[in-house]
Amino acid sequence: MTPYELIQVYKEKKGIESDNAAAKELGLTRAAVSEVKRGGGLGPEYAWAIAEEIGMEPAEAIGICLVAKAERSGDAGKVAVWRLSLIHISEPTRPRL
User: Fold this and answer.
1) DSSP 62-90
2) CA 97 → CA 9, 76, 86, 94, distances in Å?
């Protein structure tokens, strides 16, 4: 999943048809959503808000954004670290207390 796919799921859950309407609801500009659509970043506060609305663990949504940021940086080490972290966030191996 990508940051823009998070926005797409948000739009589906909320019954929003346009990126512009989603941007307004999230407190983003239309240009910011367009940037995310082209592979740009989504801040953790927005990822968190989207996660709460779509029923996703906020840490997972933030992890998705951090993987995308690492991929844009071209740093293979960071990509590997964030992907591994995302796996542990989305598929925990330890029982929760």
Assistant:
1) HHHHHHHHHHHHT-HHHHHHHHHHHHHHH
2) 30, 34, 20, 9
pTM: predicted TM-score of the whole model, two decimal places: 0.82
Question: What radius of gyration do the chain's Cα atoms show?
Answer: 14
**Which candidate, 31, 33, 32, 29, places its Cα nearest to that of 7?**
33
Give me 47's structure tokens: 């990822």
The angle at the Cα of 24, spanning 23 to 30, to the nearest 5 degrees, equals 45
Per-residue pLDDT of the chain (97 residues; tens, 9 = 90+): 999 999 999 999 999 999 999 999 999 999 999 999 998 889 999 999 999 999 999 999 999 998 888 888 898 988 888 888 877 777 755 555 5
